[in-house]
């Protein structure tokens, strides 16, 4: 069976590929897609030439929902809507590494060096059809619409909270998040509606911060009024992530935790003296695994949570050809709004 796909072959250049698709598992048609900042970095060529040469050609997009076309096992019905999971488990039997992380509940397959991730070191979801194993899809409840495409980002927020220890029964009632972008917004929502936390948000952009009407808002250039905390999550990214992390270090109680989730373009300085003096733990978090996606879909069934996620849908755009596909990448590469322009793709 042959199917089309869009692949990036060099910065700002997509080409149509025709591939032979096997139907060994579940045949899925991707439907709603969202562009990530990582996709934009590939599109604009904002990675080293050595990395780009190794990655291209590659189908982008790891935030997606789809529709089941055919499942020979009968586990999924034809036409059933599903969330697509981008993390691919390795074939490793746990004996290749001195320390295997796959059974560590704080790490799991996402941190296994042998795992793959769609639109990073494995083809993404910009395809007409995909043959997908059952473990890489989750059914979408009927009450959830196209906003299910945000499940991947929500799952990353769930992973951040898991890395902070919230799934281990720690008695923490509040969390402070640095970053007024989409990741900070979603992590804050997960903290409030998923874990019942009081949320403090620290940012700079008033228009964006006005959307955080479920949290206590503080401006990063004036945080004297910000209370001290036990858990801080940095979701700023870029070179400013160092500034945010150091502000968090200054505000954390002794023994507090700092979770880093923003990607910096260069090495950033950290106030290690304060880290040492106050015994602060620093953990990194990125991406997510199936348990995080399951939590994400569960959260989307909460009306208040779903209402806040719907604010992030700037537009839904029919993409029927490669020109439409280019147009969304151009729009997203220039957008500074808090939200995304979603693709409804049809080859």
Describe the model.
- There is one protein chain.
- The chain has 347 residues and is α/β, with parallel strands linked by helices.
- The chain is built from 10 helices and 17 strands.
- Helix 3 packs across helix 4 (182-195) and helix 3 crosses helix 8 (290-300).
- The longest helix is centred in the middle third of the chain and has 14 residues, at 182-195.
- The radius of gyration is 20 Å and the shape is globular.
- The two termini are 15 Å apart.
- The mean pLDDT is 93.
What brief labels describe this structure?
six-stranded parallel beta sheet, 17 strands, seven-stranded mixed beta sheet, alpha/beta
So how many helices? 10
Class inferred from helices and paired strands: alpha/beta
The ordered H/E elements are EEEHHEEEEEEHEHEHEEHEHEHHEHE
Low-confidence runs: none
From the alpha carbons, calculate the radius of gyration and give it in angstroms.
20 Å
Main sheet summary:
7 strands, mixed
Number of strands: 17
Strand content: 25-35%
Distance between the termini: 15 Å
Shape: globular
- The overall pLDDT average reads 93
Helix content: 25-40%
């Amino acid at each position: 069976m042959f199917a089309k796909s869009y692949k990036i072959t060099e910065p700002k250049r997509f080409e149509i590929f025709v591939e032979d698709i096997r139907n060994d598992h579940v045949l899925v048609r991707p439907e709603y897609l969202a562009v990530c900042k990582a996709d934009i970095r590939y599109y604009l060529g904002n990675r080293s030439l050595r990395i780009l040469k190794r990655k291209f050609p590659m189908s982008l997009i790891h935030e997606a929902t789809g529709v089941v076309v055919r499942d020979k096992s009968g586990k999924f019905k034809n036409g059933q809507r599903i969330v697509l999971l981008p993390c691919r488990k390795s074939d490793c039997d746990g004996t290749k590494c001195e320390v295997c992380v796959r059974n560590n509940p704080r790490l799991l397959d996402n941190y296994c060096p042998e795992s793959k991730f769609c639109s990073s070191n494995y083809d993404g979801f910009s395809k007409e059809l995909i043959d997908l194993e059952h473990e890489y899809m989750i059914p979408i409840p009927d009450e959830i619409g196209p906003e299910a495409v945000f499940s991947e980002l929500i799952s990353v927020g769930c992973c951040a909270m898991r890395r902070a220890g919230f799934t281990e029964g720690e008695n923490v009632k509040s969390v402070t998040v640095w970053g007024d972008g989409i990741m900070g917004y979603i992590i804050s929502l997960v903290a409030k509606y998923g874990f019942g936390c009081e949320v403090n948000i620290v940012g700079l952009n008033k228009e964006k911060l006005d959307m955080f009407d479920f949290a206590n808002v503080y401006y990063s250039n004036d945080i004297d009024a910000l209370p001290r905390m036990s858990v801080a999550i940095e979701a700023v990214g870029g070179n400013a992530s160092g500034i945010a992390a150091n502000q968090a270090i200054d505000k954390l109680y002794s023994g507090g935790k700092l979770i880093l989730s923003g990607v910096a373009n260069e090495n950033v300085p950290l106030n290690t003296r304060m880290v040492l003096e106050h015994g602060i733990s620093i953990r990194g978090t990125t991406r997510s695994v199936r348990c995080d996606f399951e939590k994400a879909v569960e959260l989307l069934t909460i009306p208040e949570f779903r209402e806040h996620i719907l604010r992030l849908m700037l537009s839904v755009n029919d993409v029927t050809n490669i020109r439409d596909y280019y147009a969304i990448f151009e729009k997203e590469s220039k957008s500074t709004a808090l939200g995304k322009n979603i693709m409804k793709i049809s080859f």
